[in-house]
Amino acid sequence: EISCPRCSNIYTYPVLLLCGHNVCKLCLHKFWEWKKSQECPVCGTESSSGMPAVNQDLTLIVEEFQTKKAMDQEICVLHNEKLKVFCDNDEVPICLVCQISRDHKVHKCCPIKGEFLQLHQFLRDEEDMRLRMLKQEETIKIQVMCNKIEDIEKEIHALNSTISKVVLDSNTAHSNLKLTQELTSVQYSNKLRLPDNPERCSSRMCVLGATGFTSGKHSWTVEVGHSKDWFVGVARESIKRKSTTFLSPEEGYWVMGQCSKDSLWAQTSPRTRVSVKQMPERLTVQLDCDKGRVVFTNAADSAVIYTFKDKFTEKLF
Hints:
Blueprint: E1 14-16, E2 22-24, H1 25-35, H2 56-73, E3 85-87, E4 92-94, H3 96-99, E5 109-111, H4 112-162, E6 177-179, E7 186-188, E8 217-223, E9 230-235, E10 253-260, E11 263-266, E12 272-274, E13 282-288, E14 293-298, E15 304-309
Antiparallel strand pairs: 1-2, 3-4, 3-5, 6-7, 8-13, 9-10, 10-11, 11-12, 13-14, 14-15
Helix pairs in contact: 2-4
């Protein structure tokens, strides 16, 4: 059977489905577009996820049939013989009698069937070459995508390595600050009985992180909630802890905070009022030791609130 069950015509690029049925490639494509599913148009069996390969064996059978049919139908009008030879000089099909006649005797002639098969072999070779090129192109694109995914994963890993968990140093906490057992949260409390060790901040109501940094990028997300009195940021190791100081870069503080219902302040000299559309409940503090930047952003929408630019010469907490 060399006719398509879908269009009833002789196969054109027949493709073989998993169920064993053959269909014209174009017929199958149109059927799948209309059906919105990839199934056999003959038996309804679910097919593969992509267009099946061309059935080369059936294609050869169809081509041979068409060649034979064409040769059977073509008759020389001069000699009533089948047209079996093609004259390259005149570019016309001729019969064997024409070939030995005076008009074509010295012309270059070749068998039509041989030329036809040679042409189809050329077309098949061309198709195979293009398919190989498409396969190579697909392989290259897949490799490029894999490389991009790998690069993105490396970037994610690098970013994750810059995000540090805030662990507070209880030895630096002011006596009016109470730390949770996990040392990750702090709140105001009545004065606690704490040893007045050299590291403890007694002039400013603050607490430092347990880990200091001298290089690289680091990031923390701090939840301030609905509190109306808070300051967060970074401080250098040599801040004055026992005498009164101002929260400013000159004194070793790069901080910002809220000290009233609807006001945010960057603690510059003098301090700078910062306007925001919405008061943040969670802030992200980004420290770049090498570039001398401390960036505060709203963790909810990543909107930049304020950026300090300075030169850091010692460890920061």
